[in-house]
């Protein structure tokens, strides 16, 4: 949001989805969060150093220490990938989601009419 932390990716995302999980909801204080997945080797910070919050034993979330904007999600079991909040991009409209994940945690009062596939957990069955 404030520009103190900037990042860049050198490839298109491998995945684009909307997460309905409780952890994303609480850390952003928003009903759902849109994520892109990039190969870790293709993603880098280009300005500033983000703060890190360990939201569960194997999960690190990075955010801007100046404005609080949530930036990334990294799971220890998938170190080759980094999830990036779609709406922290300069052009979030460029990568619309292809599905919704973690409907098992859904808050219930946001109804999407996008017709996209929904999954009770992760589409890939990986841990939260
Ligand atoms: Zn989530």
Keywords:
128 residues; mainly beta; Metal Binding Protein, Guanine Nucleotide Exchange Factor, Chain A; seven-stranded mixed β-sheet; two-stranded antiparallel ribbon; 5% helix; globular; binds zinc ion
Count the helices. How many?
A: 1
Q: Which stretches are poorly predicted, pLDDT < 50 over at least 5 residues? A: none
- Predict the CATH topology: Metal Binding Protein, Guanine Nucleotide Exchange Factor, Chain A
Assembly category: single chain
Bound molecules: zinc ion
SSE sequence, one letter per element? EEHEEEEEEE
**Global structural class:** mainly beta
Brief summary of the model shown:
The protein has 128 residues and is mainly β. It is 5% helix and 36% strand.
What this model shows, in words?
The chain has 128 residues and is mostly beta strands. The protein is built from one helix and nine strands, in the order ββαβββββββ. The strands form two sheets. It has a seven-stranded mixed sheet with strand order 5-6-7-8-3-2-9, covered by helices on one side. The protein has a two-stranded antiparallel sheet with strand order 1-4. The chain has one helix at residues 22-28; strands at 6-9, 15-19, 33-39, 43-47, 51-56, 59-63, 70-75, 81-85, 99-101. The longest helix is centred in the N-terminal third of the chain and has 7 residues, at 22-28. Strand 5 (51-56) and strand 6 (59-63) form a beta hairpin. Bound molecules: zinc ion (ZN). Zinc ion binds next to helix 1. Residues 19, 21, 23-24, 102 line the site of zinc ion.
């Amino acid at each position: 949001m404030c520009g103190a932390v900037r990042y860049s990716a050198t490839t298109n995302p491998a995945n684009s989805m909307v997460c309905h999980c409780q952890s994303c909801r609480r850390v952003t204080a928003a009903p759902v969060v849109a994520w892109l997945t990039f190969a870790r080797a293709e993603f880098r910070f280009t300005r500033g150093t983000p703060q890190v919050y360990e939201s569960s034993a194997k999960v690190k979330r990075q955010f801007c220490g100046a404005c609080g904007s949530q930036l990334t999600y990294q799971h220890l079991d998938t170190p080759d990938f980094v999830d990036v909040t779609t709406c922290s991009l300069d052009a979030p409209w460029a990568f619309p989601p292809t599905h919704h994940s973690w409907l098992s945690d859904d808050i219930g009062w946001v109804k999407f009419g996008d017709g996209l596939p929904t999954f009770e957990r992760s589409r890939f069955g990986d841990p939260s």
